[in-house]
Amino acid sequence: MKNPDTISRFVMDVSGQIKQFTWLDNSQSWILFWSQPRQQCQVYSLCGAFGSCNENSQTLCQCVQGFSPRNQSDWDLGDQSGGCVRNTPLKCGDRADSSNSQRDKFFTMDNMRLPVNNQTPDGIGSDNDCQLACLNNCSCTAYSFAGGRCYVWHGELLNLQDQNSQSETSTLQLRLAASELPSPKSNKKIVIWGVVGAAVAVLVCLALIWFVVWRRRSSRLMRASKAMGYSLVPFQYSELLHATKNFSHKVGGGGFGSVFKGSLPDSTPIAVKKLEGLHQGEKQFCTEVSTVGMIQHVNLVRLLGFCSEGTNKFLVYEFMQKGSLDTHLFRSTSTDLTWKTRYQIAVGTAKGLAYLHEQCRDCIIHCDIKPENILLDDSFAPKLADFGLAKLMGRDFSRVLTTTRGTIGYLAPEWITGVPITAKAYSYGMMLFEIVSGRRNLENPEESNATGFFPTLVE
């Protein structure tokens, strides 16, 4: 066609559509101006018999359930007009000769544009009656009950279209041999096995997560059990909960917190000190970690690690089986502490103090030497504990921090009056009196009117 303004041409191509192309002088090309039908799926019998068309699918044509391409090579070349053929013939004839499991059944196809050439039998008012009408006719291949009316199809189904939940769609019941549909029991089994499989997968994932967490925690705790010298292990709060069985075994306590017994995965016993009182606890935490963690001596309790998570702060020490000296020293019948053992404790404590005073890079003043802070191992060898009051000082002992304090009855007068420190072992001397005498230097050390101060008794 030609006129003074426009040049157009009409084409019918392999798609089955009539298309009008218009020539553009500017681009020197043909452009599509119009096509009929507008959608390719509306072309009559585009996908052939029992083929379903879907505009939104990568493959425009597909065979419906229970059917396969009539000529696979044509389909591979893009020509689906040959349609599809049934995989299994229908079970037609006397329905009484067939068991219920062998009779033809119907496959539900939702959101379909119904095929052409339907018939409408009279006197049918329900879906069940419509289904029976189709089953009783060997040539019936599908039915649909919509709007109170029954529609049946005989022979091949043409122009099937899956419209993907669009408006004005219907449900088509496609007749198939029973073997082409899974039985309800099979569907139930599939659902059950699917649920079981999903549950097993979830349990396996949870088990793997638990195993990874356990391995990491065990690895960390095993490293802690082998911690030597300056290698401090940073513990997690959850690890200490597990090691101490939720802090169930309390073995002692002091001004800054309680001590709990625990064990590492290799059964190595540990003592976990929980620091209480946020302000003071943090000061002690920083002091002990910075001082005890860097020193090693046979007469000093070894710090294995620490934990600092928010307000939760802990110190992890090696565990001393015999407990503190006061539990043995001040008992009415102390058969464990022979004079040889007392001498061993006194000398060992002195060696630990000498190491802190003379052999560390910076002099460390313990500030709170007393029987409660002398722990004993299996052989009653003494180890100094609780460095919460320790202060790092230079060789000039006149430099004393004002926050330092100790226990009444063991604190040197210089600490009380504020004059420069001249004695480094006053507390040790007071404790030595107790080791020899087997009695405390104060009868009621926590009361202001305590009596029995040892220098007075000596005088």
TrEMBL record:
One of its GO terms (cellular component) is plasma membrane. It holds the Pfam family PAN_2. The chain crosses the membrane at residues 190-213. ATP binds at K274. It comes from the Eukaryota. Its EC number is 2.7.11.1. It is found in: Cell membrane. This is non-specific serine/threonine protein kinase. Residues 92-177 form the Apple domain. GO terms for molecular function: ATP binding; carbohydrate binding; protein serine/threonine kinase activity. InterPro entries: Kinase-like_dom_sf, Pan_app, Prot_kinase_dom, Protein_kinase_ATP_BS, S_locus_glycoprot_dom, Ser/Thr_kinase_AS. It catalyses: L-seryl-[protein] + ATP = O-phospho-L-seryl-[protein] + ADP + H(+); L-threonyl-[protein] + ATP = O-phospho-L-threonyl-[protein] + ADP + H(+). PANTHER family: OS07G0415500 PROTEIN (PTHR47974), RECEPTOR-LIKE SERINE_THREONINE-PROTEIN KINASE (PTHR47974:SF19). Residues 245-459 form the Protein kinase domain. One of its GO terms (biological process) is recognition of pollen.
